[in-house]
Amino acid sequence: MNHSSTVYLETFGCQMNELDSELVRGHLRSLGYRFTDDFTKADVVLYNTCSVREQAENKAYSRLGLVGMRKKAGEQVILGVLGCMAERDGIDMLRRFPQVDLLCGPGELDRLPALIDNVRRTEGAAREERVALAGSKSRRSATLAAAEDHLELLDLSRAFEPTDGGADRRSAYVRITRGCNKFCTYCVVPNTRGAEVHRPPDSIVDECKRLVAAGVIEITLLGQTVNHYRYSHGLAVDSEGREQPQVGPGLAAFRAPIPDGQRVTTFARLLQRIHDEVPALQRLRFVTSYPRDFGDDILDVMAGCPRICRYIHAPAQSGSNRILKAMNRGYTREEYLEFIERVTSKLPDCTIAGDIIVGFPTETDAEFEETVSLVRAVPFKNNFIFKYSPRPGTVAIDRFEDDVPTEVKKLRNNLLLDIQTEVSRRVHESWVGRSVPVLVEEIREHGAAAPADPDSALSLAMAHPESKKIELRWNRRQATPRAGLQAIGRTPGDLIVAINLDHTTVGAEGAQALVGTVVEAQLTAAAPLLLQAQLVQ
Ligand code: 5AD
Ligand code: SF4
């Protein structure tokens, strides 16, 4: 087998995909593959795709066009589509895009190296053989077939010597559940990622320990609905007695007490275990939370464990009870507000973030106004606002006509963005004057920004929490010759902080040495998107 190949791997969409890509990279590297950031130099090009919104899919389609051009010019390139688009489109994609050589769904990534080898060996053979998909109809993982164990092995075999530089070495994701059982009517995830499967707590704790031993100081636990993590012990063990991943319980399980005699690791217990058993871990965070069944037990553990970040990303999606019902979210506006009330009374410092969909089918102006009033009522640090996008394979696309005109969706989106900006500014302002620990992610040069308006020199496009990148864009017109250095990082509550570094005390090298460390910063000014600060020496 020829493993001297050079691979280009690009990731679209969520943190789950970023983690999948990291694991794929580790797996292929261990087999001798090399990686490049330049897609023109790669002989294997892989796109790890996302289907949540049409926009993300369109981006990936345009990338397929680029590789198609290279192939037309006679270059030998293997093109693979990984992730949710592969799963959703299935072999239709091979018919529509003849340049695509292989498809690999998110539940089959352990089989990717074999698929690449297969493409090499079987040139001209049936293209259907170059496909590894769980099959959205079968929801394979619901039966926990053997392949699920292989997927677990992919998580367990992750490389613990992170090779990427900077803050990436310090921050890592750990998956606690795969898939989703909630079936929100607009969402493709239950189809593309299959049924909810929960990893054994020992595997999770072990992975956290090994990451920390390799230098990681911040771990983000990943799951579509992390608070629904629940592992019943003694049900699924392998021949050596090791616990295996298991299918998550239905929603009813969260309404009833845990049966007598059943040993269960709840999400609260898992957090406590990681906190206690990995004492060198400085920051433990988790996304995404489901706004129902977020018990006081979780809030109590958060209150009692100083290294668990007081940050909750709990998408409300809408403020209208009728729309929430049509979305099949399983809670009311009142229940959402009651949940937030519990969070802020038990954890006054906790920052709250969310997602909102505007223009869901049949949403009226009055119902949109209810979303506006919800956004005003909750101290959201930020909300990611999406225009409804009908997705093939979802319940909503069959049940409802996409009847809110694009122009109205745009208008509602912009109105809500303006309101969220006001709310974000208020939340950020409430932090000014305090001293906070900041995990430094990068050093930037900046054109001396007026402290009263930190956003003016630096405009910052925050990515969805499911994508960890902070994108910073510089407004060159604002830059002045008195440029200095800024350390950009995050508080435990995920507030973004720009620390002005005084170049007389911190030189360029000294500044770079701050990346990946936690520093104490005095917050001096606020804007909707970030806080300005001075280093506390
Ligand atoms: N249209 C628009 N937004 C969507 N999301 C998920 N599916 C859709 C869709 N069909 C949003 C939800 C979710 C976030 C990850 O993406 O707000 O929380
Ligand atoms: Fe999709 Fe709803 Fe599951 Fe989130 S909880 S992944 S929105 S089905």
Describe the structure.
Helix 8 packs parallel to helix 9. The N and C termini lie far apart (56 Å). Helix content is 32%, strand content 22%. The radius of gyration is 23 Å and the shape is globular. The longest helix has 24 residues, at 406-429. The chain has helices spanning 15-30, 54-72, 84-89, 92-96, 112-121, 146-156, 189-192, 201-213, 267-277, 296-304, 321-326, 333-346, 365-377, 395-399, 406-429, 508-513, and strands at 6-11, 34-35, 44-49, 78-83, 102-104, 131-132, 171-175, 177-178, 197-198, 218-222, 230-232, 246-247, 264-266, 283-287, 311-313, 351-358, 380-387, 435-446, 458-462, 470-474, 484-490, 496-501, 518-526, 531-535. It is α/β, with parallel strands linked by helices and 537 residues long. 45% of the residues are buried. The model is unreliable at 136-147, 448-461 and 466-482 (pLDDT under 50). A hairpin with a 7-residue loop joins strand 19 (458-462) and strand 20. The chain has a 6-stranded parallel beta sheet, sandwiched between helices. The protein has 4 domains: 6-133, Methylthiotransferase, N-terminal domain (Rossmann fold, 3-Layer(aba) Sandwich), CATH 3.40.50.12160; 139-309, Transcription Regulator spoIIAA (2-Layer Sandwich), CATH 3.30.750.210; 310-430, Transcription Regulator spoIIAA (2-Layer Sandwich), CATH 3.30.750; 435-535, no CATH class. Bound molecules: 5'-deoxyadenosine (5AD) and iron/sulfur cluster (SF4).
- How does the helix and strand content classify structurally? alpha/beta
End-to-end distance: 56 Å
Q: Supply Rg.
A: 23 Å
Described by its quaternary structure, the protein is: single chain
The CATH topology of the largest domain: Transcription Regulator spoIIAA
Associated small molecules = 5'-deoxyadenosine, iron/sulfur cluster
Which class of the largest domain in CATH terms?
A: Alpha Beta
Silhouette = globular
Bin the strand percentage.
15-25%
Work out the count of structural domains.
4
Number of strands: 24
Mean pLDDT: 87
Q: Count of helical segments?
A: 16
